[in-house]
Amino acid sequence: xxxxxxxxxxxxxxxxxxxxxxxxxxxxxxxxxxxxxxxxxxxxxxxxxxxxxxxxxxxxxxxxxxxxxxxxxxxxxxxxxxxxxxxxxxxxxxxxxxxxxxxxxxxxxxxxxxxxxxxxxxxxxxxxxxxxxxxxxxxxxxxxxxxxxxxxxxxxxxxxxxxxxxxxxxxxxxxxxxxxxxxxxxxxxxxxxxxxxxxxxxxxxxxxxxxxxxxxxxxxxxxxxxxxxxxxxxxxxxxxxxxxxxxxxxxxxxxxxxx
Length: 259
Hints:
alpha/beta; globular; 11 helices
């Protein structure tokens, strides 16, 4: 007599006899961990970051670079999802490395590591396409969370930090920068410009939708269209462009909002 599958010892049950829902959770393949490349000229900082990130089960440090010139070949070899990039390094600094890296197709996201929270160097990195920046004294849990957010496509600058940063940008060439920014924003339609200004104000999608009487999916569509039309990488760059255009200098006209 043939016994039913449930009566057989586990090793004797043929695979086709086990329904999918009976597979234990640990047997289901997990998603690949977030690959990280650390670039810093201080070996103690690199070691500390690697040790800290080693405690996160969904993050894996793939390689370390001691200067910006090492980042490009290492990124090509290991294909990380996120690069933690120091600014001041020998041979090639983190700014030049960020610009070169982000110019590549399929480039990893870059989080700039810095000891200061508002500086023209940091702004240059953001313009080059960095997803944001972290202070080196940021608590470990926040660094891990920032890596996860950036890997998911979300910048790590809070609206308050963004405003403080761009408020301290050097004013040299402001008129020229404003004219260029307005020329680029002229490529958008009226609704896209409204959304861009709201992004520049640091508003999340839900708040933009409520302000302009749009659904959240529609707001996301507009943001995606803005990024594609202007050749930008993320919301931070939208905010910087809106700021350069001077569109945050004056309060919005209530009569024109939500048309």
